[in-house]
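Hi there. Long-time user, first ticket. I'm pasting a complex I've been working with (about 1239 residues overall). I'd like to know whether the download I got is complete or cut off, because the file seemed smaller than I expected. Thanks.
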Amino acid sequence: MSKLHMTLNGKSVDVDVAESRYLSEVLRNELGLTGTKIGCNEAECGICTVLVDGTPVSSCVYPAFKAQGARVETIEGLADNGSLHPLQQAFLEHGAVQCGICTPGMIMTAKALIDEKGTSLTEDDIRVALKDTYCRCTGYHSVVRAILQASGQDVMLSLPDTRPAGAAIGHARPNPNARAKIEGTARYTDDYDFPGMLYARTKRADVPHARIRFIDTSAARALPGVHAVLTHEDVPGHKRHGLVIDDWPVLCSDKVRYAGDAVAIVAADTEEIAAAAIDLVEVDYDELPVVRDAIQATAVDAPLVHEGRDDGNLLKHIKVDKGDVDAGFAKADVIIDQTYRTQATEHMFLEPECSIGVPAGYDPRDFGGDLYAAAVRGETARHDKTTIYVGSQIPYQDRSQTAAALGVEPETVRIVATMMGGGFGGKEDVTGQIHVALLSEHTGRPVKMLYSRQESLLVHPKRHATVIHMRTGATSDGRLTAVQATLYGDAGAYASLSEKVLTRATTHAAGPYDVPNVKIDCFAMYTNNAPSGALRGFGVTQSCFAVESNMDMLAEKLELNAVEIRRVNALDVGKTTSTGQVMRESVGLNECIEKVASDMCRRDFRWTWEEGDSRFAWGLAVAYKNTGLGGGAADKASAEVEVWVDAISATRAEVRISSAEMGQGLPAVLAACAAEELGIPIECVNVLLGDTDFCPDGGPTTASRQTFVSGNAVRLAARKARRELEEAGDHVLVRYDYTAPETQPLGAGGDMHVAFSFGAQAALVEVDMNTGEVHVRKVIAAHDVGRVVNPLTLQGQIEGGIVMSVGFTLLEHYIQEDGRPWTNIMARYKIPSITHTPAISSHIVEHEASAGPYGAKGVGELPSIPTGPAITNAIYRATGVRVRSLPVDQDELLRAMREGSGAIELAWGDLEPIPAVDPGGKR
Amino acid sequence: LQGPRIRNLVEDSIAEMTTASVNRWAQYYTPATLAEALEILRRYDGQARVVGGGTDLLVETRRGLHRPVEAMVDVTRIDGLNAITTEDRYIIIGCGVTHARIVRNTRIIEHGRCLSESCGVIGGPQVRNVGTLAGNVAHALPAGDGTIGLLALGGEIEVASNYGVRWMPLQESFKGPGKSFIDRYRQILTRLRFRPTGAGEGSAHHRVMRPQGLCLPIISMGVRVKIGAANTITEARISMGPVGPVPYLAEAAMDVLVGGPATSEQFARAADAALDSVKLRASKYRASREYREQMVRTWLPVILDRAVKRANGSAS
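Hi, the file is complete. Here it is re-exported in full:
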């Protein structure tokens, strides 16, 4: 231990600390300043940025003793006596805070910039300064506006032009939890610390497919400081988990099926000891041949990922059948027949997974702690149940799956939702929850399991890689006569949500169009890759790329305008989806197309032009996305609303529901629903989310369903509370169990979904003809969201979704080489930075869904869906090169431009061309 | 069952990455004098490692890519080695000077433009605020941008050890990819210097990147030219990487240019000569050989033109 002296946030600080520590560790662990967040420990993401002598540095690779004698500033030092710094205030007002995990680093980076430049600050300065400070949620636009405002410039709030639907509904309000996030006091799981807490790590397979010969934990157990080493033998209850099919071992026993499989878990006094113990766990394998992709998985002689199944590696064959495609194609004047490939991608939520298990009966006083410290922070002091602190999208299923593994009743387990640093679908499957429960019950102590960024990349489910063969027929006037598609989806090693995701890919594979004859076959295949699951867009992102690419090709062949061909075929009230659902209301697609077209086609509009060495062009795409689970599943949410009437001060209400806030702004939506019904200001509504002992089940936070389903539960609970208040007087507590309108399973016809949201986007790209580099310069978007509940958080969803999809189209590929991830560090997996962000012009269309709260429907995923094909359609118009595989590779694009080959089928990260697919999916 | 039997693969990179990093040091020194720094290195006898900003070294150390050492000797706070100075007709950069300071330095912008340009594209602000040019050079990557910029300027480096101090040409320090003749456990790269560009001289740097994957250049190139009477090139230096194991001085291309007119035909010939003199490679997930070649053909003439314009004072 050595003495480290710093002037920290204006105060002289001396700490005794090992010289081997990094600054981030000293701040967080020694000084308790957990406002500084850790995203990667690779100096890649920038969220750990603090100022050393006024200069932004990545504290995760800044040796603490390099700061000896220096002036260090962190987010905690920004507010002055409780009054917010102008940056904090501006981040709040502009909605530049979503999940909040990057916010402290973002604000500190911006502070140095404002200190340096003052009011002369420009948008370009911001783009330079924030280049390596990532945000996965906002799309950066609100951040830029906030920083400009904080520098003293006048900045208008950029919000869609809509009229408020009520006193509380339709007004721009910051998310209620945003203030804690900008102050650095919001507590994510890794920010929790319990007296006596142990640190856990997981032994990963590191081989994609192998039979386990033996597991020897004796050396690990013998290591001083190790409290427990557990294997499959130590799982007392159900030994597998899974959201749809329970095929995922809690800890592997006989074989491993992907490199991220868990074989053993360790709890120890420190992270270092736990890591050392993991290295001492000896696992002996017989390696097996690897199933490396979905097409190979279909081969008759392919190795089996799961033995003993009738269908080999086929997880599910999903079918959509409407009309007679042969007759439809016979009527067509033009048929486009193409095969596309989309890549596996990664959520890259900037907060890696973290779970803390606290054993039943835990008392901090047993470990030198006291009961009040927790109570002061508003936390539970006593833990009478096995309790798991976790940022999860599905708290109640965490509870049931953990209880099953422990062999106990679900009610004996409690999930406490912490702040979540982004989810995007990647925090639905169980990761460390069961493991920390096992370890904490085994050791009798709290156990924290924080994944490193690299472990996070290795373990959690990805977006499905797909190969899509798509055949689209139309008559000469552009009317679609038939769509036939065959999709192969790489489900990875375990089922996760593959069936649901690929069902969405299948049912949306004719696009948001009125197509009389449709036949889609989708094959979800087990492989030895990382499991595939939910990722914003949920399968529709993939099929939309194929659908909208074909639509542009049709338009070109028929010499029709890209806008016109979509207008001619667009779904509308009275038309029928490919699953046989007759649209009765809330189809704003034509209006979306109209709005985008009129914004794009202003004076002097040209589809394409040249400037210097660059070609510019516009591309268009449309999309739709279901709201809610649908498909016959009971889509339920239960909410509690408690109201206290106080004649002197204000009436207050608390909303309680176990739905997840991952940065999308759910508390703002639920508070607005309650306030609207109760007739009180939004500020008087407190929203408590995701403590399974206090909050009824709001169902999974997936499928763009929370505004619709939980919003309705809260709305109806509040309405009931208001009625009861008239009789009860000054205090009521009501619960409402809401079930969305009934839907039909795929194949049954009728209503498969309660509502669909629609969108159209036009992308302006610039292609550098010398290098093949592609930049998206502008996106014009229009989305039919039913009804706007909060324009500020809505704008955040739209801008963030579009920028995320710029990443999907141009940057991101989770590369696996025969089951071994190449993108195993953040430095190899780039997400969009501020420099990749296009200008965005966003329009809102409101075609109310009668069953939605105030007419609202889901918007979480939709904005990320059409962006990809809008970009690649623009690239085609600029260069004459059709992109058939994502993400776009500039090397291949340049080659195709020079050779005039007209198409590229090698994406960045692909080493082989798109494989051939039998139409109709003969396997 | 059949299949190769494998043992617990601790050497596998995934295993390294998923375990909490134990790759640290016991002591972190920030000596205030060169003598002190050298004394620490002497005392540790190979068990201490010199670190500059550490923006590459510490990330790699965290990943377990370097052998563990007992001590880190941070050379960014040494008196006299933390400034940009002009002495003896050289611009001299101390080993404590960060990329950010080089980028902002008006003298280097004026008289060593390709260095300020090349340091300006390194990493992001957080890296440039901490990382040093000396560290970039000592890291000896085949295409370290700062290194490429300095190489085009004809840079030299000063290396100090307990046996003395000497200046040497920059290009003589490279041994292989990531390997330097500077012994980073016993020697300190103390200063870097180059002759400022004067009247009739200009320099420029450009690199081509891709937005995906590792932040390593597809090609990074620097040029320095001197223009004499009748638009004749009298001196030329061209640096590039990655075109081989070490940063490359394209002498064949330089020879083509010197004595000839500063015309686009000549620039294209220089690119041909440069390509003839090297064996370009494909690097997986970064660039094909053809793409690299194309980028040299496209961009070398562009930056030569830019440098000539600067030499003629007709462009900034």
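A couple of notes from our side: The longest strand of chain B covers residues 219-227. The mean pLDDT of chain B is 92.
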